[in-house]
Protein backbone atom coordinates (compact mmCIF):
# COMPACT_ATOMS: atom_id res chain seq x y z
CA UNK A 1 0.00 0.00 0.00
CA UNK A 2 1.33 3.47 -0.87
CA UNK A 3 1.89 6.19 1.71
CA UNK A 4 -1.01 8.23 0.31
CA UNK A 5 -3.42 5.29 0.48
CA UNK A 6 -2.28 4.82 4.03
CA UNK A 7 -3.10 8.43 4.87
CA UNK A 8 -6.61 8.04 3.45
CA UNK A 9 -7.09 4.80 5.31
CA UNK A 10 -6.08 6.63 8.51
CA UNK A 11 -9.12 8.84 8.06
CA UNK A 12 -7.40 11.93 6.63
CA UNK A 13 -9.50 12.83 3.57
CA UNK A 14 -7.85 13.87 0.31
CA UNK A 15 -9.84 16.76 -1.18
CA UNK A 16 -7.65 17.31 -4.26
CA UNK A 17 -9.67 14.98 -6.48
CA UNK A 18 -13.08 16.35 -5.55
CA UNK A 19 -11.92 19.96 -5.84
CA UNK A 20 -10.56 19.28 -9.32
CA UNK A 21 -13.78 17.54 -10.26
CA UNK A 22 -15.84 20.46 -8.97
CA UNK A 23 -13.59 22.91 -10.82
CA UNK A 24 -14.17 21.00 -14.06
CA UNK A 25 -17.94 21.03 -13.53
CA UNK A 26 -17.95 24.77 -12.77
CA UNK A 27 -15.82 25.47 -15.86
CA UNK A 28 -18.15 23.43 -18.06
CA UNK A 29 -21.19 25.23 -16.64
CA UNK A 30 -19.53 28.61 -17.15
CA UNK A 31 -18.72 27.73 -20.79
CA UNK A 32 -22.33 26.67 -21.30
CA UNK A 33 -23.61 29.93 -19.75
CA UNK A 34 -21.25 31.93 -21.91
CA UNK A 35 -22.43 30.14 -25.05
CA UNK A 36 -26.03 30.70 -24.01
CA UNK A 37 -25.49 34.46 -23.56
CA UNK A 38 -23.71 34.65 -26.91
CA UNK A 39 -26.59 32.80 -28.59
CA UNK A 40 -29.09 35.20 -26.99
CA UNK A 41 -26.99 38.15 -28.18
CA UNK A 42 -27.05 36.76 -31.71
CA UNK A 43 -30.80 36.27 -31.47
CA UNK A 44 -31.29 39.87 -30.28
CA UNK A 45 -29.10 41.06 -33.15
CA UNK A 46 -31.24 39.08 -35.59
CA UNK A 47 -34.42 40.59 -34.14
CA UNK A 48 -32.82 44.00 -34.40
CA UNK A 49 -32.07 43.37 -38.06
CA UNK A 50 -35.67 42.26 -38.69
CA UNK A 51 -36.99 45.40 -36.96
CA UNK A 52 -34.70 47.63 -39.01
CA UNK A 53 -35.67 45.92 -42.28
CA UNK A 54 -39.34 46.58 -41.45
CA UNK A 55 -38.66 50.19 -40.52
CA UNK A 56 -39.34 49.72 -36.81
CA UNK A 57 -37.63 51.66 -33.96
CA UNK A 58 -34.09 50.63 -33.12
CA UNK A 59 -32.56 50.11 -29.68
CA UNK A 60 -28.88 50.06 -28.70
CA UNK A 61 -27.32 46.79 -29.88
CA UNK A 62 -25.34 45.96 -26.77
CA UNK A 63 -26.80 45.60 -23.33
CA UNK A 64 -25.43 48.40 -21.15
CA UNK A 65 -25.93 46.84 -17.76
CA UNK A 66 -25.71 43.46 -16.07
CA UNK A 67 -22.84 41.06 -15.45
CA UNK A 68 -22.48 40.15 -19.15
CA UNK A 69 -22.50 43.66 -20.60
CA UNK A 70 -19.03 43.26 -22.12
CA UNK A 71 -19.11 39.53 -22.78
CA UNK A 72 -17.86 38.62 -26.24
CA UNK A 73 -16.50 42.11 -26.92
CA UNK A 74 -12.82 42.65 -27.65
CA UNK A 75 -11.18 44.13 -24.54
CA UNK A 76 -10.37 47.46 -26.21
CA UNK A 77 -13.99 47.95 -27.24
CA UNK A 78 -15.19 47.22 -23.72
CA UNK A 79 -12.64 49.69 -22.31
CA UNK A 80 -13.68 52.36 -24.82
CA UNK A 81 -17.37 51.90 -24.00
CA UNK A 82 -16.59 52.28 -20.30
CA UNK A 83 -14.44 55.38 -20.84
CA UNK A 84 -17.06 56.99 -23.05
CA UNK A 85 -19.68 56.36 -20.40
CA UNK A 86 -17.41 57.68 -17.63
CA UNK A 87 -16.50 60.75 -19.71
CA UNK A 88 -13.18 61.32 -17.91
CA UNK A 89 -9.88 59.39 -17.66
CA UNK A 90 -9.99 56.47 -15.24
CA UNK A 91 -7.33 54.71 -13.21
CA UNK A 92 -6.20 51.23 -14.22
CA UNK A 93 -7.79 49.86 -11.06
CA UNK A 94 -11.16 51.37 -12.02
CA UNK A 95 -10.92 49.96 -15.54
CA UNK A 96 -9.93 46.51 -14.26
CA UNK A 97 -12.81 46.48 -11.74
CA UNK A 98 -15.29 47.45 -14.48
CA UNK A 99 -13.96 44.82 -16.91
CA UNK A 100 -14.21 42.10 -14.27
CA UNK A 101 -17.69 43.22 -13.26
CA UNK A 102 -18.98 43.34 -16.86
CA UNK A 103 -17.62 39.96 -17.94
CA UNK A 104 -14.95 41.33 -20.33
CA UNK A 105 -12.27 39.34 -18.57
CA UNK A 106 -12.59 35.62 -18.00
CA UNK A 107 -9.16 34.69 -16.62
CA UNK A 108 -9.33 32.94 -13.27
CA UNK A 109 -5.77 33.62 -12.22
CA UNK A 110 -4.57 37.24 -12.15
CA UNK A 111 -7.31 38.68 -14.39
CA UNK A 112 -5.76 42.15 -14.08
CA UNK A 113 -2.88 41.03 -16.32
CA UNK A 114 -5.17 40.68 -19.34
CA UNK A 115 -6.61 44.19 -18.91
CA UNK A 116 -3.24 45.79 -18.20
CA UNK A 117 -1.66 44.21 -21.27
CA UNK A 118 -4.46 45.51 -23.48
CA UNK A 119 -4.14 49.00 -21.99
CA UNK A 120 -0.35 48.93 -22.48
CA UNK A 121 -0.70 47.91 -26.12
CA UNK A 122 -3.38 50.47 -27.03
CA UNK A 123 -1.38 53.28 -25.38
CA UNK A 124 1.72 52.58 -27.49
CA UNK A 125 2.56 55.18 -30.11
CA UNK A 126 3.20 54.18 -33.71
CA UNK A 127 6.91 54.99 -33.25
CA UNK A 128 7.16 52.69 -30.22
CA UNK A 129 5.57 49.87 -32.17
CA UNK A 130 7.75 50.51 -35.21
CA UNK A 131 10.79 50.11 -32.94
CA UNK A 132 9.47 46.79 -31.70
CA UNK A 133 8.95 45.41 -35.22
CA UNK A 134 12.44 46.58 -36.19
CA UNK A 135 12.88 46.45 -39.97
CA UNK A 136 9.66 44.57 -40.71
CA UNK A 137 7.48 46.55 -43.10
CA UNK A 138 3.91 46.24 -41.84
CA UNK A 139 1.04 48.64 -41.48
CA UNK A 140 0.87 49.97 -37.91
CA UNK A 141 -2.45 50.41 -36.12
CA UNK A 142 -2.78 53.83 -34.37
CA UNK A 143 -3.23 54.01 -30.58
CA UNK A 144 -6.75 54.19 -29.15
CA UNK A 145 -5.92 55.03 -25.54
CA UNK A 146 -3.83 57.79 -23.97
CA UNK A 147 -2.15 58.28 -20.59
CA UNK A 148 -3.40 61.22 -18.53
CA UNK A 149 -0.90 61.16 -15.66
CA UNK A 150 -1.66 57.93 -13.85
CA UNK A 151 -5.05 57.64 -15.55
CA UNK A 152 -6.15 56.30 -18.92
CA UNK A 153 -8.45 58.00 -21.38
CA UNK A 154 -9.49 57.98 -25.05
CA UNK A 155 -6.87 59.03 -27.54
CA UNK A 156 -8.86 62.01 -28.87
CA UNK A 157 -9.48 63.58 -25.47
CA UNK A 158 -7.82 66.93 -24.68
CA UNK A 159 -4.98 67.08 -22.12
CA UNK A 160 -6.99 69.03 -19.53
CA UNK A 161 -9.86 66.54 -19.48
CA UNK B 1 17.49 17.10 -24.94
CA UNK B 2 14.44 19.10 -26.01
CA UNK B 3 12.19 17.20 -28.40
CA UNK B 4 11.30 19.07 -31.60
CA UNK B 5 7.60 19.68 -32.03
CA UNK B 6 5.98 21.91 -34.62
CA UNK B 7 2.55 23.18 -33.55
CA UNK B 8 0.57 24.88 -36.31
CA UNK B 9 -2.62 25.62 -34.41
CA UNK B 10 -3.42 26.98 -30.98
CA UNK B 11 -4.89 23.69 -29.81
CA UNK B 12 -1.74 21.83 -30.88
CA UNK B 13 0.35 24.38 -28.99
CA UNK B 14 -1.78 23.94 -25.89
CA UNK B 15 -1.36 20.16 -26.07
CA UNK B 16 2.44 20.48 -26.20
CA UNK B 17 2.80 22.64 -23.10
CA UNK B 18 4.18 20.94 -20.01
CA UNK B 19 3.82 22.22 -16.47
CA UNK B 20 7.09 23.54 -15.05
CA UNK B 21 7.39 22.28 -11.49
CA UNK B 22 9.48 24.72 -9.50
CA UNK B 23 10.97 23.44 -6.24
CA UNK B 24 8.58 24.26 -3.42
CA UNK B 25 10.98 24.65 -0.52
CA UNK B 26 14.77 24.87 -0.37
CA UNK B 27 15.96 24.47 -3.96
CA UNK B 28 18.89 22.13 -4.61
CA UNK B 29 21.22 22.32 -7.65
CA UNK B 30 19.76 19.09 -9.02
CA UNK B 31 16.25 20.63 -9.11
CA UNK B 32 17.11 23.19 -11.75
CA UNK B 33 17.94 21.15 -14.89
CA UNK B 34 14.48 19.49 -14.88
CA UNK B 35 12.61 22.81 -14.65
CA UNK B 36 14.94 24.37 -17.21
CA UNK B 37 14.31 21.57 -19.71
CA UNK B 38 10.53 21.88 -19.36
CA UNK B 39 10.68 25.65 -19.84
CA UNK B 40 13.02 25.22 -22.80
CA UNK B 41 10.54 22.87 -24.41
CA UNK B 42 7.61 25.26 -23.76
CA UNK B 43 9.64 28.10 -25.25
CA UNK B 44 10.66 26.08 -28.31
CA UNK B 45 7.07 25.20 -29.26
CA UNK B 46 5.95 28.79 -28.62
CA UNK B 47 8.70 30.22 -30.83
CA UNK B 48 7.81 27.82 -33.64
CA UNK B 49 4.12 28.70 -33.41
CA UNK B 50 4.77 32.46 -33.25
CA UNK B 51 7.20 32.46 -36.16
CA UNK B 52 4.75 30.57 -38.36
CA UNK B 53 1.97 33.02 -37.50
CA UNK B 54 4.13 36.09 -38.02
CA UNK B 55 5.22 35.06 -41.50
CA UNK B 56 3.87 37.22 -44.37
CA UNK B 57 2.00 39.70 -42.21
CA UNK B 58 0.74 42.91 -43.78
CA UNK B 59 -0.81 44.66 -40.79
CA UNK B 60 -0.14 44.61 -37.08
CA UNK B 61 -2.66 44.62 -34.25
CA UNK B 62 -2.86 43.55 -30.62
CA UNK B 63 -2.59 39.86 -31.56
CA UNK B 64 0.46 40.42 -33.73
CA UNK B 65 2.14 42.59 -31.11
CA UNK B 66 1.52 39.95 -28.44
CA UNK B 67 2.82 37.18 -30.71
CA UNK B 68 5.95 39.23 -31.27
CA UNK B 69 6.37 39.85 -27.55
CA UNK B 70 5.82 36.18 -26.71
CA UNK B 71 8.41 35.15 -29.31
CA UNK B 72 10.99 37.61 -27.94
CA UNK B 73 10.40 36.53 -24.34
CA UNK B 74 10.55 32.84 -25.28
CA UNK B 75 13.83 33.33 -27.15
CA UNK B 76 15.52 35.00 -24.17
CA UNK B 77 14.11 32.46 -21.72
CA UNK B 78 15.15 29.53 -23.91
CA UNK B 79 18.77 30.73 -24.02
CA UNK B 80 18.85 31.18 -20.27
CA UNK B 81 17.43 27.70 -19.69
CA UNK B 82 19.97 26.14 -22.05
CA UNK B 83 22.66 27.41 -19.67
CA UNK B 84 20.77 26.42 -16.52
CA UNK B 85 20.11 22.91 -17.84
CA UNK B 86 23.85 22.25 -17.52
CA UNK B 87 23.71 22.93 -13.81
CA UNK B 88 24.37 25.77 -11.41
CA UNK B 89 26.45 26.13 -8.24
CA UNK B 90 24.79 25.41 -4.88
CA UNK B 91 25.38 28.98 -3.66
CA UNK B 92 23.46 30.57 -6.50
CA UNK B 93 20.64 28.06 -6.82
CA UNK B 94 18.07 29.90 -4.69
CA UNK B 95 18.42 33.24 -6.49
CA UNK B 96 18.48 31.51 -9.88
CA UNK B 97 15.22 29.71 -9.11
CA UNK B 98 13.52 32.87 -7.90
CA UNK B 99 14.53 35.02 -10.85
CA UNK B 100 13.71 32.20 -13.31
CA UNK B 101 10.29 31.85 -11.71
CA UNK B 102 9.67 35.59 -12.17
CA UNK B 103 10.83 35.55 -15.79
CA UNK B 104 8.73 32.46 -16.51
CA UNK B 105 5.67 34.09 -14.90
CA UNK B 106 6.04 37.09 -17.23
CA UNK B 107 6.28 34.73 -20.19
CA UNK B 108 3.22 32.69 -19.18
CA UNK B 109 1.25 35.92 -18.61
CA UNK B 110 2.00 36.90 -22.20
CA UNK B 111 1.06 33.44 -23.50
CA UNK B 112 -2.24 33.59 -21.59
CA UNK B 113 -2.93 37.02 -23.03
CA UNK B 114 -2.22 35.68 -26.51
CA UNK B 115 -4.65 32.79 -26.01
CA UNK B 116 -7.26 35.24 -24.71
CA UNK B 117 -6.92 37.29 -27.86
CA UNK B 118 -6.99 34.34 -30.24
CA UNK B 119 -9.40 31.91 -28.58
CA UNK B 120 -10.99 32.62 -25.20
CA UNK B 121 -12.37 29.11 -24.85
CA UNK B 122 -8.91 27.62 -25.11
CA UNK B 123 -7.42 30.29 -22.86
CA UNK B 124 -9.44 28.94 -19.95
CA UNK B 125 -7.75 25.56 -20.46
CA UNK B 126 -4.32 27.07 -19.94
CA UNK B 127 -4.95 27.43 -16.21
CA UNK B 128 -3.22 24.49 -14.61
CA UNK B 129 -1.11 23.75 -17.70
CA UNK B 130 1.27 26.70 -17.65
3D architecture notes:
The complex is a heterodimer of chains A (161) and B (130). Chain A has two domains: 16-59, no CATH class; 62-154, no CATH class. Mean pLDDT of chain A is 81; it is low at 1-9. Chain A is mainly alpha-helical and 161 residues long. In chain A, strand 2 and strand 3 (151-154) form a beta hairpin. Chain A has helices spanning 3-9, 16-53, 75-86, 92-101, 111-123, 126-132; strands spanning 90-91, 145-148, 151-154. Chain A has a three-stranded antiparallel beta sheet. The relative contact order of chain A is 0.09. Chain A is globular. Chain A contains six helices and three strands, in the order αααβαααββ. Chain B is an all-alpha fold and 130 residues long. Chain B has one domain. Helix content of chain B is 65%, strand content 0%. In chain B, helix 3 (62-84) runs antiparallel to helix 4 (93-118). The radius of gyration of chain B is 15 Å and the shape is elongated. Chain B starts with 9 loop residues before the first helix and ends in a 6-residue tail after the last helix. The model of chain B has no long low-confidence stretch (mean pLDDT 89). Chain A binds chain B through residues 27, 31, 75-76, 106-110, 113-114, 117-118, 121-122, 124, 129, 132-133, 136, 138-141, and chain B through 57-62, 64-66, 68-69, 109-110, 112-113, 116, 120-121, 123-124, 127.
How would you characterize the largest beta sheet of chain B? none
What is the number of independent domains of chain A?
2
What's the Cα radius of gyration of chain B? Answer: 15 Å
| Total DSSP E strands of chain A | 3
- Please give the share of residues in helix of chain A: 40-55%
- Beta-strand proportion of chain B: under 5%
Q: If helices are DSSP runs of H or I spanning 4 or more residues, what is the number of helices of chain B?
A: 5
Global shape of chain A: globular
Contiguous runs where pLDDT drops below 50 for at least 5 residues of chain B: none
Quote the distance from N terminus to C terminus of chain B.
20 Å
What is the total domain count of chain B?
1
- Helix/strand/pairing category of chain B: mainly alpha
Amino acid sequence: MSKQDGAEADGIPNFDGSIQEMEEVVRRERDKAQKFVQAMDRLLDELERVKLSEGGPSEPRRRDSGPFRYLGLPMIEAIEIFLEKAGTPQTREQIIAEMKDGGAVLAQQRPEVEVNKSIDYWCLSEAEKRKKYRKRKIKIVPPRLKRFGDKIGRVGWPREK
Amino acid sequence: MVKKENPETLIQLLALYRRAEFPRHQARPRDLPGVALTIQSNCAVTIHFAKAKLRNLQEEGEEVFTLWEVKDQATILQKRCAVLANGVGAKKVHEEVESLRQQYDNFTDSVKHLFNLLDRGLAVRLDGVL
